[in-house]
Amino acid sequence: MTVELRKLNYEFEQKSYREIEKxxxxxxxEHLDIYRASATPVEQYYxxxxxxxxxxRLRESLCADGTLCYEATLKDxxxxxxxxxxxxxxxxxxxxxxxxxxxxxxxxxxxxxxAEPLPGITIDFYDDGSxxxxxxxxxxxxxxxxxxxxxxxxxxxxxxxxxxWRAHLSFRRANNGVEALKPAPELDPSAIVQDILAARKxxxxxxxxxxxxxxxxxxxxxxxxxxxxxxxxLSSTVMSTDxxxxxxxxxxxxxxxxxxxxxxxxxxxxxxxxxxxxxxxxNGKSIYRRSIDWGSVEPIFDGVITPSDVVIIExxxxxxxxxTKQDELCYETTTPLATCIGRRLLRDMRERPEFADPVKSxxxxxxxxxxxxxxxxxxxxxxxxx
Length: 386
Known about the structure:
- By secondary structure, the protein is α+β, with helices and mostly antiparallel strands.
- The protein contains ten helices and 16 strands.
- The chain has helices at residues 10-14, 96-102, 138-148, 163-174, 189-199, 218-231, 248-254, 271-282, 337-351, 358-375, and strands at 18-26, 40-46, 54-62, 68-76, 79-81, 84-93, 109-118, 121-126, 131-135, 152-154, 206-211, 236-240, 287-293, 298-305, 310-315, 329-332.
């Protein structure tokens, strides 16, 4: 799986969206039983697979006042250092409704009891009777082993230390070896080009739709398809549904003059106008080139698009029924949710650090972007799809 390189800015590093932790197995777990009485129940399920470069979990636990608390946490795979696993960790508070929205029997789930004998030191007691200790505070860890002796095996970086891996292992055991959330093969640009060549016998121009979540790698696939078409001396035009963003002013009018907040809703993108422009291209007519100025978040017209052999449409709404026809080539990227969110967060922090707030962004993507993406009516699996 292709992963974008992480280039974090100074401001991001200073906000401590990172953890460094070590994990241990107790040789004598019964010595820790005194903490069971004060341990509180935790339930967490995963929206990611251990083979992904990012882990995404949603957790239900008890707050200090005895009420239920909910949170979502995104982590990258990190790196193993002498001090422990050093990785990105972004946690955002969510509500019970969002926790319930994503929860499914088909997801890996883990239940445990958690105690915190010292700040930064936690003990997890699992349903199978095993226990594990986590340390994010070296000084407090030394105090802890002074009390109980150094009877712990360092398993930092081992699969056994991963709660995600534990949850997936439990799921496989309960489901006859079936894996949950196993990433599907990525779209193959060369296969898409072969579909285009086959479609030329019956359709001209060829129209290709490549949809998918933000951060799913659509642009990379489109670039490679365009490159291969150019090598075959076939002209191509790339259009994005992002180019048909209505802009802040129009959206505020729709919202009775109030600021717009739901940036991933279908109405944000004028797919009807895009359909009209596509009809002109189908008929051999040129159209004005549209794009969005992300500084002002307003549409601009900055050129002309002329007809070409192949029109490639990409974007989160590239498979909208407004702009798809039955004989066109339709594809959807298969990049999993956790990886898409991780890529998008890192991209925002790299390209727009002054606006990037990872905690708010993670909550937005779970509460707004993903439900909107799932709810859209998609035409997937066109007649020539690989």
